[in-house]
Write a structure and sequence with these properties.
Blueprint lengths: L6 E5 L2 E5 L2 E4 L6 E4 L5 E5 L4 E6 L4 E6 L12 E6 L6 E6 L4 E5 L8 E5 L6 E6 L6 E6 L3 E6 L5 E6 L5 E6 L6 E6 L3 E6 L8 E4 L5 E6 L6 E6 L3 E6 L6 E7 L4 E6 L6 E6 L6 E5 L8 E3 L6 E8 L2 E9 L3 E6 L14 E4 L5 E6 H5 L16 E3 L14 E6 L9 H9 L7 H14 L3 H14 L25 E3 L53 E2 L2 E2 L60 E3 L6 E5 L14 H13 L3 H11 L1 H4 L4 H17 L3 H10 L3 H4 L47 E3 L6 E3 H10 L15
Antiparallel strand pairs: 1-2, 3-30, 4-5, 5-6, 6-7, 8-9, 9-10, 10-11, 12-13, 13-14, 14-15, 16-17, 17-18, 18-19, 20-21, 21-22, 22-23, 24-25, 25-26, 26-27, 28-29, 29-30, 31-32, 32-34, 33-34, 35-39, 36-37, 38-39, 40-41
Helix pairs in contact: 3-4, 5-6, 6-8, 8-9
InterPro entries: WD40/YVTN_repeat-like_dom_sf (IPR015943), WD40_repeat_CS (IPR019775), WD40_repeat_dom_sf (IPR036322), WD40_rpt (IPR001680), WDR24 (IPR037590)
Protein name: GATOR2 complex protein WDR24
Keywords: Autophagy, Lysosome, Membrane, Metal-binding, Repeat, Transferase, Ubl conjugation pathway, WD repeat, Zinc, Zinc-finger
Length: about 800
């Protein structure tokens, strides 16, 4: 590897020097930790557990802790930590639920010291107390945290968060008795190690699991957290309620977060998936990383600053089986390559655009914005801070508002509320949704639903034409061969006549076979002017009803014979022969109709009088009942079209209604992207019920799990205030009934309502009636309860 510039940092009597370097590991790393004097680093993973020396030019392997012929699961590590007070003491979290300590001072090859097997599931995190040598804390997938005294053979305290899996635990750097724990349900809890019965504080930090947390090394009350919602948040814990003071939006789930030494506002993060880079953020400028390390080729699993007082060296391990030392001077600075422009859409379509002031003011063609007293663009100036390492740039913000009358999103809300996605037959769902779209003046969407009904309806529900079925009843069938007549003869119009063929037979008759020809039903057909009765024609074995008959026009008007009044009130039928003749019509060249087969010289043209369109009756090229798979490519393109146009609502609704008919044609990632986009829009419009219905009807595993998280309800006994550990109404500690109505003193077996302030409650109706006349708790505790 090419040598890069060296750096030397003075740390009291010690000096750290080195360069950006790496070494290959035998297996992917899950976690790394550095010793107190910053000369060695331990790398732990499922199949690796080694110690490397940090020399000036390279990593040198010093010790392999995986010894023995058949290494047990105790060597399969999910986390590792090197004690910052005792240089020979290590602790690992095993994937089998064991917590193992290692004494490097042992003379034997096996350095294992103590083994704790109290956790029932994987241990996600271990943490030594920063000043107490013998105190070790662990957090497990089983939802419990345990504090071990290394002078004893078992844990001294067990902390139950009454929540889902514990993902991280961290002792406070400034408060001796305080530690923080993060959970998969998005909560963060603060505990006092002297009180294992109940946490001191709990707050919801993220939407989804909180994977990591880290106390600020200098500021006593700052706690940084990172979660699956792709955010890093900094909380001020010195106030009565946890206050979010900074928030950084990343591009992937945050797996690790570490404050940078000697830099109050800098922290480093790495992602759990997708993104392989390590980012150093200045939390005052959260929109772009301060520095980036891009050396790893796979997900970064562990990061640690080499020394607690040195901000220039960062160590990292990865799933690409490499261990890196990054020198901060070699980091990439994204701000040097970033375009200083920003663009953002509002919920109702408003557009905000920010750019350099020089770009806006130099645009001489810019028209003034007609916004009354409001000035566009708006300029924002920030006072320069000498501690910031950013160039000072003044920006201008332009806001472009949409016309509320023409670009309102009312249609989106009404459509979401009125659409039916399940619970009725497919055809009824399509008809209902088409009607909703039509009422909201969205004709294209309405037509799409109608076409979907036609394409995917069960052919068994359609009438199959028999020998005695008339052609008018075939109008419900979906296939039709049609074309338009461009140039009409001068004789066509309101004065057009019907010519009847009497006794003339043709050799080129077109036989209308059942099931092979289709005519759309025109309900607005009118009688031809001048005809007194209802004319009848015989087309082979299929008889036309007069209401459904399309009038027949002739192209060659020169051959039109003068019409005479009939002598009879009812016209006589022509003689039925074996080879029946159709009414006389004009001849049509083959090239005029794309559906005429090679041996056909003529087609029968049936024309509604008012529309002047011609429908050819000919032999179809394919079966009338097409399988659903025939239309799938077209429907797939249609869904992609709607999604690209921004109407993800239509794409998801069709996806749900069609179900298995189309689901296999679209890849899972695309479906998940559509679902997430639509659910996000629904929640922004506070359409919670519709959002939940979409989640329930989804078949994507990543979507269906959204409303299954945080569904466990942990309750405390209303008498002794301790958690209810068993399943029932009786508390196993005070042996009292937990769900007793404070008004009638009977066990509540139905709806139970309780006050979140004093924990007393009872039957819903009883509590409502009580609080109508009194504001004090009916249990007599003196608390002022309120029913909302």
């Amino acid at each position: 590897m090419e040598k890069m510039s060296r750096v030397t940092t003075a740390l009291g009597s010690n000096a750290i020097s080195g360069r950006t370097m790496f070494c290959h590991l035998d297996a992917p790393a899950n976690a790394i930790s550095v010793c107190r004097d910053a000369t060695q680093v331990v790398v732990a993973g499922r199949n690796i557990f080694k110690i490397y020396a940090l020399e000036e030019e390279q990593f040198v392997e010093k010790l392999n802790l995986r010894v023995g012929r058949k290494p047990s699961l105790n060597f399969s590590c999910a986390d590792v930590m090197w004690h910052q007070m005792e240089e020979n003491l290590l602790a690992t979290a095993a994937t089998n639920g064991a917590v193992v300590t290692w004494n490097l001072g042992k003379p034997s090859r096996n350095k294992q010291d103590q083994l704790f097997t109290e956790h029932k599931r994987t241990v996600n995190k271990v943490c030594f107390h920063p000043t107490e040598v013998y105190m070790l804390l662990s957090g497990s997938q089983d939802g419990f945290m345990k504090c071990f005294d290394l002078r004893k053979k078992e844990s001294v305290s067990t902390f139950s968060g009454q929540s889902e899996s514990v993902r991280d635990v961290q002792f406070s750097m400034k408060d001796y008795f305080t530690f923080a724990a993060s959970f998969e349900n998005g909560n963060v809890q603060l505990w006092d190690i002297r009180r294992p019965d109940r946490y001191e504080r709990m707050f919801t930090a993220h939407t989804g699991p909180v994977f990591c947390c880290d106390w600020h090394p200098d500021d006593r009350g700052w706690l940084a957290t990172g979660g699956r919602d792709k955010m890093v948040k900094v909380w001020d814990m010195t106030t009565n309620r946890a206050k979010e003071i900074y928030c950084v939006q990343t591009i992937a789930s945050v797996a690790r977060v570490k404050w940078r030494p000697e830099r109050k506002f800098h922290l480093a993060t790495c992602s759990m998936m997708v993104d392989h880079n390590i980012y150093v953020w200045d939390i005052r400028r959260p929109f772009i990383p301060f520095a980036t390390f891009e050396e790893h080729k796979d997900v970064t699993t562990g990061i640690v600053w080499r020394h607690q007082h040195d901000p220039h060296f960062l160590l990292s391990g990865s799933k690409d089986s490499t261990l890196y030392q990054h020198m901060f001077k070699d980091a990439t600075r994204p701000v040097d390559k970033a375009n200083p422009e920003g663009l953002c859409f509002g919920l109702l379509g408003d557009l905000a655009f920010a750019a350099k002031e020089s770009l806006i003011t130099s645009d001489a063609n810019r028209k003034p914005y007609p916004g009354g007293d409001r000035r566009y663009p708006m300029f924002f100036f920030k006072k320069p801070d000498p501690t910031e390492q950013f160039a000072h740039v003044s920006s201008a913000l332009s806001v472009f508002e949409t016309d509320l009358d023409s670009h309102r999103m009312d249609w989106f809300v009404k459509t979401a509320q009125l659409y039916l996605l399940s619970g009725k037959p497919f055809a009824e769902l399509c008809d209902h949704n088409a009607k909703v779209a039509q009422e909201l003046k969205r004709p294209q969407v309405s037509t799409t639903w109608t076409m979907l009904r036609i394409m995917f309806s069960d052919p068994a529900n359609l009438a199959t034409p028999g020998p005695n079925h008339n052609l008018g009843k075939l109008g419900t069938l979906p296939l039709m061969n049609s074309f338009s007549l461009k140039d009409l003869g001068s004789g066509m119009g309101a004065e057009s006549r019907l010519e009847r063929s009497k006794g003339e037979s043709r050799q080129d008759n077109i036989h209308l076979e059942p099931g092979n020809s289709y005519i759309s039903n025109n309900e607005e057909n009118e009688e031809t002017e001048g005809s007194e009765g209802h004319p009848e024609y015989m087309f082979g074995d299929a008889e036309l009803d007069d209401d459904d008959l399309y009038s027949m026009e002739h192209d060659n008007q020169t051959e039109e014979q003068e019409y005479t009044l009939p002598q009879e009130a009812f016209q006589l039928r022509h003689e039925i022969v074996d080879n029946p003749s159709a009414p006389e019509h004009l001849q049509q060249d083959k090239a005029d109709s794309p559906h005429v087969s090679g041996n056909e010289a003529e087609v029968t043209c049936l024309t509604p009088i008012e529309s002047f369109s011609l429908i050819s009756i000919s032999q179809p090229l394919f079966s009338p009942h097409l399988p659903a798979s025939f239309f799938c490519p077209i429907v797939r393109e249609m869904l992609s079209y709607y999604a690209e146009q921004g109407d993800v609502q239509m794409a998801v609704s069709v996806l749900i209604v069609l179900g298995d008919r189309i689901r296999k044609e679209i890849d899972d990632l695309t479906q998940e992207h559509w679902y997430m986009s639509y659910i996000d829009l629904l929640q922004r419009f506070e359409l919670w019920n519709v959002s939940n219905e979409v989640i329930k009807l989804s078949t994507c595993s990543a979507i269906t799990c959204l409303n299954q998280t945080s569904t466990t309800l942990h309750i405390n006994c209303s008498n002794c205030k301790r958690p209810m550990s068993n399943k029932g109404w009786i508390c196993d500690r005070c042996h009292q009934c937990a769900s007793v109505c404070a008004v009638c003193h009977h066990v509540v077996k139905g709806l139970f309502v309780w006050c979140q302030g004093c924990s007393h409650g009872g039957h819903l109706e009883h509590m409502m009636n009580w609080l109508k006349s009194s504001a004090h708790c009916p249990a007599g505790c003196g608390h002022l309860c309120e029913y909302t």
